[in-house]
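Why this split exists: single-chain examples teach little about how molecules sit against one another. For that reason, every record in the complexes split bundles all components of an assembly together and asks for one structure covering all of them. Below is a record exactly as it appears in the raw files.
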Amino acid sequence: MGEPGVKEVLSLEDLESAGSVRSGRKHILSILVENKPGVLTRITSLFARRGFNIDTLSVGPTDDDHISRITITLDGANHPIDQVTKQLHKLVNVLKIRDLEPADAVSRELAMFKVTADGNQRAEVMQLCDIFRGKVIDVTKRSLVVEITGTVDKIEAFERNVRPFGLIEMMRTGEIAISRGRGET
Amino acid sequence: MECLKAEGVDVVFGLPGGANIPTYDALYDGGIRHILVRHEAGGGHAAEGYAKATGKVGVAFGTSGPGATNLVTPIMDAMMDSVPVVFITGQVRTDLLGTDGFQEADVIGITMPAVKHSIMIQHPTEIPRAVKEAFHIARTGRPGPVVLDIPTDLSKADIDYVPITDVRLPGYQPTTEGNVKQVRQAAKALAAARRPVIYAGGGVILADAGDELAAFCRADRFPVTTTLNGLGAYPAPDPQWLGMLGMHGTRTANYAMDEADLICCVGARFDDRITGKLSEFAPRAKFIHIDVDPAEISKNVPAHIPIVGDAKGILVKLKAEYDALGADPGRLSGWWQRIEGWQLKHPLGYEESEDTEIKPQRLIEAVYEATGGEAIITTDVGQHQMWAAQYYHYKRPRQWISSGGLGTMGFGLPAAMGAAVGCPEATVVCLTGDGSIQMNAQEFATCAQEAIPVKVIIANNGYLGMVRQWQELFWEKRYSSVDMGRFPDFVKLAEAYGCTGVRLTNKDTLVDDIRAAIATPGPVVVDVRVTREENTYPMIVPGEAARDMVG
């Protein structure tokens, strides 16, 4: 400041750049899209093309027939998240994108575990299922299917505990998330 | 047809086939001019050339399957260079979709990464709205290609035409007005800068902001450079003009970027051909980045002052804000001394031949002289393209039409055709090489049949010259598959197609010979034999910093 004839200038050194910064945390992108053919392909192919890696993906209807919600989680340590959201915004069928802060959202995932359960193991698995507030949804002579709903951490904890009993297979839906408070996600 | 007319379409480039016969039937007496091309790629590039020359949306038609896949290159080309073109492809009947029917291709799927948007028609009544939205999306925001895929049974259906007056695209709302605070911040930064450079790109031309750019740059003595696609955005030659920047830009422009303390980027995207080694690019500079596409901001180079919006309006506001600051123009005199030093020490130049051999650079200068610098120039891709960028001076937007982002050989001739159709008063010259011209040479027939008077000037060195240059410089002169011999005989080829063919070999009469060729009515092909192993200099070696330019 203060040079003759130069008023109100600003020191170039003070300018800070923004953007393309890797946040280093997990991001949950909640994306509202028009319910039209090929929309999911447009989104997933955009991720592939730009070299972004999706961790989980879930798609479902919303309270409006014309609109679907896609929830994608990805690792902010590997991707400049603002590039991801800006590129998504360019898709004509994408209506709204929200990058949910974990603290401002409630997220859930559903998982089903098929576990070996003969004889005396069965009681132990069912006990574990109780502790995790899970449900047994199928029983055969040698196996159980357990349904667990919860946060990703809870599902992963259950997986660790149940694995020693003989985990035959596991299926997970991918996370969905909704914002806390009265406002729309 | 009515839908197209409502969008102001007066010409379409295309080729009919089984799946789009209904559309062509409507064209038969539809009141829109149709240019029958010889290959769909020619039609696609012609629509691009038309769009680039006129600023209007270009339209290309192709049939299903191979017709549509032949359009993929022009679609991608239009995407990379943000050219507003609507591609309308035929598709097999709806009951055949997904059955691997004859001439079926998943056009929407194949083109997905190459389009701004694409629409598959599912019901005939959707057509008017889809056409309206396709044109709206193609021309607004950051322009780009839109594909409309219409199954043949749906295009056959008779529907009542009700004009559509609105668009319903809730997910598509481009930002046009720049943020006022950011503009003010940018003006202040410019007033503080001691070594500023204005770096403009094709976005200025797309926004029709050439005058606004010039006015802004002249608000002070801001040095200006542009990208390849930005040529013509600022009138050249001019005291504030540094020449093009980037891989084959002038040393002055690249050195100025390297030493700048503030770079104001308008409608450009910090492509790798501009920055050279990214980590060494403009190490002392802060960046103002003006772009209509928010995804370009901070994509390659972090912007300190991002401004999202249409360049035209923003440049006007930026100039007004800057003028109000009353900055001292004297603060730039040291910077200009440095720049003028580079200009004196490193002018563009080449070694003239000692006999009558024509140097390719001399050829471009001769074309400049013969056309009085007024022609619309289209180019193909390679050495001749860079020489055309360096040695012809473009004084106005839309005078330079080239394939920048995708670098499509075979673009030049059809693009010239499109430009000549769009601007019938202008002299349109296609500067090309002997490699590139052969990629769409079939369009000579279109030019002859439609009497499109393009003047095609081939810098013929019998090589894929740019690849040869790289092999010479970086691969120990191991010339692998670059020698094209002296085939074909372009004069005979031109005559076979019904064009005039001329061969030039003498530099002493070059300007007059070119003037005569251009004055010849109808399409003319000029085969100019140039020095075989001439290199395009100066050059930023790929992966190196701009300050280490060679040649």
